[in-house]
Amino acid sequence: MLNYWPRISPKKPTHTQREFLGVDKRDPFSLDPRLSPLARNFISTNAPALTVRPGFSVLGDAIGGRVLGLGAWKESELHAIFNDGTWRKWTGTAWSAPLASGLDRSAVWSFCNFKGNLGDVNLIATNGIDPMKRYDGNTVSDVPTAPAGANFIETHDNRLYCAVGLKLYFSPIGIADNWNLVEQTPADGGNFDKNTPQGESIIGLRAGSGHVFVLFPSSSWELYGTSSEDYSYMPVAEDIGGLNDQCIVNLGGLIYFLDETGIYVYSGGTRPRKEFSAAVQWYVDNMNKSAKLTSCMGADGRYLYVAIPMSANATAPDTILVWDSVTGIWNVWDGINAVLMAKVGETMYMADAQGRVLRIG
């Protein structure tokens, strides 16, 4: 006669994880059980449900060994500059033939869109070494009379702004291709220095609400005014700077930027805050400082992406911190070595350290 195991009445688990509220690397012994210090590769799109992060597809073949610039013309056409010295656009099925060649093979590019007197919106680009460039929808050409060594191109209040060392240049109102009109009238262009106690050069510019945000390695400032008659520098924080121009983004009308002391948000008129990023401060504190200048950031309207190098031998970012501005949830991704980011329409693109451009989702 067989002896059967006694019947065990089914019971529900004493504790069921019904919600996931993201990553938090603070004290694991005092964490809310809905948080995790170790979770990887999730996204909060359907929070509080647990959702795997989106995948990615590679656009065409890798070109060169690294992408040096990623920009969008009219928010509809993706452009990339590769370290083989070429500027190309994505046609929808492949990378185009070079629109420009012979470009510097190591300097990182910045982009902005500007119309002014150019007849149509142009994609303006600078890298601090090559002449300022513009793409008019068909061809890439030099911007005449632009400052030599111009970098960190930005547009604000119908002017172009760029930096050379500690000097900030501004174009005439509505004019992109005649920087020689200098301070004869309030509408003209010009330039002025910003001397800091450390004697540092400008490392990034970003247009904000009513001002231009100017970043140095050890301090941050904002430029108020509309012409040489009323421009003035006001300190944002004389002890908080940033890493590079790729680590400043706009999201929801606020400026977010990365310093080696934290991920900050600046809303204007008050000191930058980093309380919102306390859950992932551990990553900033422990990132590979020797590769920190390869860090980059991006935003797609809802999510803030912060790519940083973490491993001891990293030469490019290997970790992406993802913040949901709707829910306040942080997640951590790996598997993408993002060195540049750009949003085109509703799609997020990331360039990696292998010379590839990835479409996220």
Give a quick set of tags describing it.
361 residues, mainly beta, four-stranded antiparallel beta sheet, 1 helix, globular
Describe the structure.
The protein is built from one helix and 28 strands. A hairpin with a 5-residue loop joins β24 (319-324) and β25. The protein is globular and about 90 Å long. It has one helix at residues 281-285, and strands at 42-43, 51-52, 56-58, 67-73, 77-82, 87-89, 110-114, 122-126, 133-135, 140-142, 151-156, 159-164, 167-170, 190-193, 204-207, 212-215, 220-224, 232-237, 248-251, 254-259, 262-266, 296-299, 303-308, 319-324, 330-334, 338-344, 347-352, 357-360. It has 361 residues and is mostly beta strands. Strands 3-28-27-26 form a four-stranded antiparallel beta sheet, with no helix packed on it. The chain has a four-stranded antiparallel beta sheet with strand order 7-8-9-10, with no helix packed on it. It has a four-stranded antiparallel beta sheet with strand order 11-12-13-14, with no helix packed on it. Helix content is 1%, strand content 36%.
Beta-strand content estimate: 35-45%
Low-confidence runs: 12-16
Q: Quick check: average pLDDT? A: 93
**How many β-strand runs?**
28
Helix segment tally: 1
Q: What share of residues is helical? A: under 10%
